[in-house]
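Schema walkthrough. Field components (list of strings):
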Amino acid sequence: MSEVTLIINDEEVKAEEGMTILEAARSVGIDIPTLCYHEKLAPYGACRLCMVEIVRGRGSSLVTSCVYTVEDGLVVKTESEPVIKGRKMLLELMWARAPGITALRHYGIRYGITEVKAIREYGVIVDRATAKFEIEPTFCTLCGLCVRYCAEVEKKNAIGFVGRGTEREVVFFPQIARKWCPGCQECYSLCPTGALPSHYALAEAHHST
Amino acid sequence: MPRLNSATDLERFRREILAKRDGTRTVSVTNGTDGRTRGSQNVVRAFVEEIERQGLREKVEVKSAGCHGFCEKEPIAIILPDEICYVGVKPEDVPEIVSQTLANSKIIERLLYEDPTTGQRITKETDIPFYKYQNRTVLGNNRFIDMESIDDYIAIGGYSALAKALFEMTPEQVLQEVKKANLRGRGGGGFPAGIKWETTRNAPGEIKYVIVNADEGDPGAYMDRSLLEGNPRSVLEGLLIGAHTIGSHQGVIYVRQEYPLAVENLSIALEQAREYGLLGTNILGSGFDFDVEVHRGAGAFVSGEESGLMRAIEGRVGEPRPRYVYPAVRGLWGMPTNINNVETWATVPLIINKGAEWFTSIGTERSKGTKLFSLVGKVNNTGLVEVPMGMTLRDVIFDIGGGIPGGKKFKAVQTGGPSGGVIPESLLDTPVDFDELTKLGSIMGSGGMIVMDEDTCVVDVARYFFNFLAGESCGKCLPCREGIYQMLKILNRICSGEGEVGDVELLEEIAEVVRDFSLCALGGTAPNPVLSTIRYFRDEYEAHIREKRCPAGVCKALISYYIEPEKCQACLICLRECPVGTITGGKNLIHIIDQDKCTKCGTCLEVCPPRFGAITRLSGVKVPEPVLQGTEVIRKRGRKK
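Field assembly_structure (string):
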């Protein structure tokens, strides 16, 4: 493996060829926010929070840092203005759907997003006095860590996605889950929001009735 | 049928077919999916029976051809070689056509196309204005070919480009020709096909794949369907030439499940090609092996995105995956893969046969050749049109499309399918090509063109497309899933009169992030309908939000119907026709609409006799207080009922 040198936020960083920008940045302590990244799993590129700006000649473009591999002389900006603008919006959009998730609160503080602003502007809650929701708030960010862990590491596919668009959700497939899940439950600790155990409990309850 | 084992075999076979057909007449009936909805199958059957009955079987051949564009007037019967064109043919007309035209060369006036502006009857298909301004190099052959006949395709020179590519040219030369022609991907991206081919050819890997992307998902677009139904062999021939150039021995045609006739005709074409030695091992005796399978897509819009499509072929959920390596290097099953759209593949044989110079003589500087569009919406002649790149939107809509029906005014045209942009009248003289449309904030897309007249509300249009996109977003990446949903909510709010000041800015803010941060092209182009309508029709958004007025009178929450008491003649028509019975009044009593119960269907406005014109559609103003119930009508003088 040969070594390449790239510049991240004006800092010279040495990285191994084949590494992603995200890995190179984290190796020197530069934190790029992520929701769907995990070092054991293949890059998924779904949360889009890790998008960074790369500068090429006079132009620049936004790339997914968990997928984009390092190149010699690459100039990366992880906290440039368009990046921050986008991240704020992404956090707000996710927040409107899944308020009260620790990971979001953590990044929310970092990027100065308050709960009030997010909910006011997108109005998931129709009537705050009666807390009537147009769509049910969720604890799941659809990062897919559980789904991918089960497929890639455990190779069981006991859990998967169903539905499209905003109707997408994580489900346990009872036929497979009842065989493997009681003895595994590795995905529980992966879930960044703690939503998963309740999903499983629901699936189990549903299956036994 | 024996196998064709060389280029000479193919040419000899072609001459045999032509010799057999010498002196015969052909009647070609459009019998694609769109023709069938208008009963073309019965017309074809009637022709076969009638020709048999009148003893003309030896002299006349009936072809069941694919759609060649003018869907509005189908079923169309063209009599060749005279090119007499009868439109809107019914089974009852068939005996007359057979006895008069086919047997005695007499033309039946009443079945000819009538020019709506001049009232003139036009005999030849190519003289009809709809066709006259077109340049039908790709789609034009549909009318000469029976959908199920390989012999018809060979008769018009089919597979000769393949023979040329196999025997007279080296793969390198073919590649140079395609590159020189600057053939850009017709599926919407506009990426040069030659460069894609070269990358795939040079990519390391024993196995390489070629794919036809026939997952045409845009609402109202059916260019690829008509090509696959009417002339599937041209797509196959292009694919064979591409595969030979790239060094691929396996291809996949990904067709959507919703196109049963295309799948059927394609399967017939493949089977026949195998029989004739044009597909399989040792193609035309050249030693080149190639086979192809048809994969039927299960109907997700996002599967048309190439990384999603390849995942779907692999048997997984058709979701895009993040990539900075082109499929040309790592695609299907991790192998170098070249994927092109139906129309792109169908153009390849033409380039090989006629040369890159011919191809580059058509079109604009950076977009060459012709492009198929599906011209739909509020336009007189709807159908598929094939025009040289660079023709202006005005020419397409007014010369070919024949303008706007009902004397209405043109308002805007939406190009490029659901994620395309809306272009206003002031920019109608823009030449249509990949780069010009992008500059206007729209896209070429696969070639949808939806014309809108003055009765269209652009906010409502944007909302319609967002409704579609929200349902088709796969939900994998955050900005596309949540962003489109929130934008749709804001649009719904605006259309229902609950828009707030600042909503337009908020829409723009979300749109930019969805565009720049999404994983695939669906999210990347999705904001176009909103961004382009805001760009060109910001005042309409503002009218919805600030004045609670829908300028086009479309958004139901913002309009009301009102009967002007001084004009109402108490004729009882609207009262009877109102589907929800909200109109009160009676004989000699002024009619009144109960605004609380009215569903705003507009029936009353339609049925009110124009000589009264008592009903108006109000928007943005308060509905006047109704007159006292039971007020008698003030009759127009001299009129007694």
